[in-house]
């Protein structure tokens, strides 16, 4: 490999590390992203033009077309998509990366003379194919679930047995090819197929609040697939870039699990959904009190401190703009307004921040859980918009609850709690929320967007 | 097993690089505010598109008459660049919103 290309790869690798580092700080995040993107561009251009191969022009033309095509489509999707659709988009892009790795593996399997290739290289090729296939089908499944085209949680009988059989099949098939040096296309495609099936099975039983964890995990796996292909080509930028994404992805995954008080294993094996009892087992929690937009508007209008707790329902209803309108109106009336951000509120960690930033909410009004919790004592009104499990006191006081131990927003310390929900249906965890039966709580039923719009017009008229 | 040991001893540098890169990844991500989790995930996702480099290599090495390899390579390049461009563009769009408003 030419020294110039090696230096280009070295520079690109450094931009990846610096870029990731900068992405971790609000002030430098944007330049971090651009830094990494520039490095990636450099690596791509260098790969195309700097080599000592005799490459016919037609190949260059094809590469050019492929890059133009993919770049235009990617750019178009990225610019067009709504901010609430972010999680499924990340998942979709991630699936493409995985597919790319699997395809590379397939070509390399065809190109190498498997009978004479060292077992380690064969194993590397096969792992690229299998991991790529798993991330591809898994990410597409996650994408389908998040955009609602696949039913959220699918239970199939004997799931564990089928799942284990597929894993065993993958390992046995792969080991067979590696150990016996068998150059068989049929075995190769069976392996690819088994990987695809496993990806679907892997994501199938996971749903709801666990989806971000899965996406992060799949993202990490794509990094590993890229690193494996890097080993294949002895290519440092792929190797280091892939490993970076792999390890950073795992850390992010673990951080998300921690925020929900779940272990990675329980997410993967879906014990959350299994332990949730049947819905509607109202065990004498008391009665609920429902309220109207005008009553809520009055108490908010005359409050000193109001805290808004945005959740998944706000994201789904796309109510972030009207939430901002309400907040501006209250601030203009001299009310002190803050947003309480639970780390896993919304559909992805940090999703609420992105959404609220989109509607121009001042960054300083978003307060993270640890900082806002002591302030609930002083709050006159807490308005919970489409959040459920992140404000469920069972996390504190019911050891039998599946969410017991999860850090929550202590909204029950406020003087009044108004909860906006569409109905009394339980949240993701499928468990009752005693907050709704609290004497201080009033329920304000309806779609988040229209309810907030009602509040805005009521307060305007005061 | 013998093969594996042979591989490790022949590629000791790679093994070192992998281990160090793992730690760099962990350190770089540690203690990130939750605000940035989504953009970070999206940015890391764009980085995993580095697999495009491999896809380009596949195309450069393939014979112009080997339509299967060329077709697969072509698809791999399209998907890889989708991951890269889409990932960075969407991350940029998210971060644009965090810009301080006056």
Walk me through the structure:
- The complex is a heterodimer of chains A (about 450) and B (about 100).
- Chain A is built from 18 helices and 6 strands.
- Chain A is of the alpha/beta class.
- Mean pLDDT of chain A is about 85; it is low at about 270-285.
- With about 100 residues, chain B is an all-alpha fold.
- In chain B, helix 1 crosses helix 2 and helix 3 packs antiparallel against helix 5.
- Chain B folds into 2 domains: about 1-30; about 35-100.
- Chains A and B meet through helix 1, helix 2, helix 3, helix 4 and helix 8 of A and helix 1, helix 2, helix 3, helix 4 and helix 5 of B.
Counted by DSSP, the helix tally of chain A is: 18
Query: What's the total helix number of chain B?
Result: 5
Strand content of the residues of chain B, in percent?
Answer: under 5%
Strand content of chain A: 5-15%
Q: Over all CA atoms, what is the radius of gyration of chain B?
A: 19 Å
Structural class of chain A: alpha/beta
Helix content of chain A: 55-70%
Mean pLDDT over the full residue set of chain A: 85
Largest beta sheet: strand ordering of chain A = 3-2-1-4-5-6
Uncertain ranges of chain B: none
Label the overall shape of chain A: elongated
Topology:
The complex is a heterodimer of chains A (462) and B (102).
Chain A: H1 3-23, H2 29-49, H3 57-80, H4 86-111, H5 119-146, H6 159-180, H7 185-203, H8 211-233, H9 236-259, H10 264-268, H11 271-275, H12 293-301, E1 305-310, H13 312-317, H14 320-332, E2 336-341, H15 351-358, E3 366-368, H16 369-372, E4 381-385, H17 394-397, E5 416-421, E6 441-445, H18 448-460
Parallel strand pairs in A: 1-2, 1-4, 2-3, 4-5, 5-6
Chain B: H1 2-10, H2 12-29, H3 37-47, H4 51-61, H5 67-96
